[in-house]
């Protein structure tokens, strides 16, 4: 039986894991016709990713699933610690409390439970269609659409869409249809992952840590509520086949007091940790996200986090392009911004990996002495890594035409009060572009064209006050937005839908110029057809 129709979707997403689910949800909430194609007939019901940070919590909030996600996660109450064989701390990273985004600094979860939340939310959107057991076997690029050939439980079929996103993992089929190259840093280590459910309730302190013992480097972390994960580095004399057995898993768990009598093993599998990224994430109507675009070791817990950052960056740009409010060339900034940014996560993961993946006793001894001398301070104990800042893209320009200082940084989210309601900023504004101003005076420089443009892209004007806020004003929290803005001499700041700073202004005319720059960067040129970049690698700069 053949399954096809004349319908043209706005976006077809190949892969329906967390990244594909988030893209489906965000684009569906924006009203776009989305179809997600997942090759497997049912969700994978075993753990994989286990960690997300405060920024990712804010993305869940933007997707409308904040409370559902909180219900299936454990926030970290203490620090992430790295110890040597003698138990001395080498690195201690504070993961306690809330981070700058108004969410816990670090949270742990069981991926099937998280995916269930995201899938339910995405599938509830009237413009989102999900087909499971539907494998994409061919793609053909046209001038206006991409045609996908599928094969699944209900037979062969065809799907057409204006854009196709490959969120289909490290062995991406969509990526195979692109001419992009890959930058590979040559990091390859095999680790046995053992996911468990301890039978007893216990307090694990610290909740998450690494044993940097050259005899057997080991990771011990939460696997979400009621679960624990151990990871064991494969030693040179061991084969992957030997390490993969259930008997080996129990043998390595035994020194940790885990036996079949007090623990259930849910999964044991050997993974090869790698560090690489695709050089071009978009070619015409094909776009990559998540593991299809980059892979990294798990030591910083940033694999899925990076994929969800891809999703929110790409979603707001596609939203504007699909509606004709921005030129398709806007999508090229997805690569330039995210590729450089993800290198921070990869760099941090590698730096941590270089600490733990040491098997030579003398080298480990030297490492221990150097790191202990820093007082386990991660700022000094670890090698320098690229800063967590977006690469060049949709950002304020300075007088010389280059990006203005401090743009592309993640902005914080504070609680504010508006019309008697106190909540995190995004809950009051509904997300999207946000224009923060010190009172309403900066607005006076905006003319009707500026205001119409801001309304057209769904921006919210947020006049902030320290006290005595008028009915339409927002009462800032102590130590919130206004002290930071005033410290830098700013009266206004434009925040993008992915929470990164577009730019700031020192006065009303500066705000008008800032809005004008945003309009210029998003505007639609006379030629409206998608412009397909020529094949070839995008130069990636890693500041290491």
Would you give an account of this structure?
The chain is of the alpha+beta class and 544 residues long. It is built from 15 helices and 28 strands. The strands form five sheets. Strands 1, 2, 8, 9, 10, 11, 19 and 20 form an eight-stranded mixed sheet that branches. Helix 1 runs parallel beside helix 4, helix 1 packs parallel to helix 8 and helix 8 runs antiparallel to helix 9. The longest helix is centred in the middle third of the chain and has 25 residues. The chain is globular and about 70 Å long. It starts with a strand and ends in a 22-residue tail after the last helix. 48% of the residues are buried.
The N- to C-terminal Cα distance equals 54 Å
Quick one: overall form?
globular
Number of H/I helices: 15
The whole-number mean of residue pLDDT values reads 93
Q: Count the strands?
A: 28
Class computed from helices, strands and strand pairing: alpha+beta
* Strand residue content: 25-35%
Contiguous uncertain segments of 5+ residues: 525-544
- Classify the helix fraction into a percent range: 25-40%
Largest sheet data: 8 strands, mixed
Radius of gyration: 24 Å
List the helices and strands and how they pair.
Blueprint lengths: L1 E13 L3 H12 L4 E5 L12 E3 H9 L3 H5 L2 E3 L3 E6 L4 E6 L11 E4 L1 H13 L4 E5 L1 E8 L4 E7 L2 E12 L6 H4 L5 E3 L4 E10 L9 E5 L5 E5 L5 E6 L6 H4 L2 H8 L9 E11 L2 E3 L3 E2 L2 E3 L5 E2 L7 H20 L9 H25 L4 H12 L5 H4 L33 E4 L2 E4 H5 L4 E5 L9 H9 L3 E6 L8 E2 L5 H7 L4 E4 L5 E5 L2 H15 L22
Parallel strand pairs: 1-2, 1-11, 2-8, 5-14, 11-20, 24-25, 25-26
Antiparallel strand pairs: 3-7, 4-7, 5-6, 9-10, 10-11, 12-18, 13-16, 13-17, 14-15, 15-16, 18-21, 19-20, 22-23, 22-26, 24-27, 27-28
């Amino acid at each position: 039986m053949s399954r096809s129709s004349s319908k043209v979707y706005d976006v077809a997403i190949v892969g329906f894991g967390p990244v594909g689910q988030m893209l489906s949800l965000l684009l569906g909430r924006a009203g776009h016709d989305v179809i997600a194609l997942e090759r497997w007939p049912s969700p994978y019901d075993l753990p994989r990713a286990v960690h997300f940070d405060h920024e990712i919590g804010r993305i869940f909030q933007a997707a409308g699933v904040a409370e559902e996600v909180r219900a299936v996660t454990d926030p970290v109450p203490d620090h992430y610690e790295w110890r040597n064989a003698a138990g001395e701390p080498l690195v201690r990273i504070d993961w306690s409390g809330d981070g700058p985004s108004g969410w816990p600094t670090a949270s742990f979860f069981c991926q099937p439970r998280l995916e269930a939340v995201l899938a339910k939310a995405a599938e509830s959107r009237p413009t989102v269609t999900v087909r499971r057991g539907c494998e994409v076997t061919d793609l053909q690029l046209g001038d206006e659409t991409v045609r996908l050939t599928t094969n699944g439980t209900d037979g062969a079929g065809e799907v057409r869409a204006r854009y196709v996103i490959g969120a289909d993992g490290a062995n991406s089929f969509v990526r195979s249809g692109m001419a992009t190259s890959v930058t590979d840093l040559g990091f390859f280590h095999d680790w046995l992952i053992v996911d468990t459910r301890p039978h007893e309730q216990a307090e694990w302190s610290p909740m998450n840590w690494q044993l940097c013992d050259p005899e057997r480097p080991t990771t011990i972390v939460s696997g979400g509520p009621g679960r624990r994960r151990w990871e064991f580095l494969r030693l040179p004399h061991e084969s992957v086949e030997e390490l993969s057995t259930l008997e080996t898993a129990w043998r390595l768990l035994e020194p940790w007091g885990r036996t079949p009598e007090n623990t259930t093993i849910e999964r044991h599998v050997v993974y090869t940790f790698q560090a690489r990224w695709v050089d071009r994430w978009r070619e015409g109507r094909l776009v990559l996200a998540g593991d299809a675009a980059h892979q990294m070791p798990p030591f910083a817990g940033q694999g899925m986090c990076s994929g969800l950052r891809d999703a929110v960056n790409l979603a707001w740009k596609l939203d504007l392009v699909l509606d004709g409010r921005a030129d398709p060339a806007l999508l090229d900034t997805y690569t330039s911004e995210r590729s450089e940014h993800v290198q921070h996560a990869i760099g941090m993961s590698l730096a941590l990996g270089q600490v733990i993946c040491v098997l030579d006793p003398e080298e480990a001894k030297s490492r221990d002495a150097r790191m202990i001398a820093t007082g386990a301070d991660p700022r000094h104990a670890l090698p320098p890594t690229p800063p967590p800042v977006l690469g060049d893209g949709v950002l304020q320009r300075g007088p010389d035409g280059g990006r203005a200082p401090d743009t592309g940084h993640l902005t914080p989210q504070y609680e504010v009060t508006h019309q008697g309601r106190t909540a995190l900023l995004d809950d009051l504004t509904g997300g999207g572009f946000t224009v923060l101003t010190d009172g309403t005076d900066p607005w006076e420089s905006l003319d009707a064209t500026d205001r119409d443009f801001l309304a057209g892209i769904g921006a919210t004007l947020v006049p902030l006050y320290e006290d005595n806020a008028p009915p339409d004003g927002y009462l800032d929290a102590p130590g919130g937005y206004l002290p930071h803005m005033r410290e830098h001499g700013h009266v206004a700041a434009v925040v993008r839908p992915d929470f990164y700073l577009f730019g700031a202004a020192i006065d009303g005319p500066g705000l008008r110029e800032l809005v004008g720059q945003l309009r210029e960067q998003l505007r639609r040129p006379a030629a409206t057809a998608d412009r397909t970049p020529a094949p070839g690698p995008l130069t990636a700069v890693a500041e290491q």
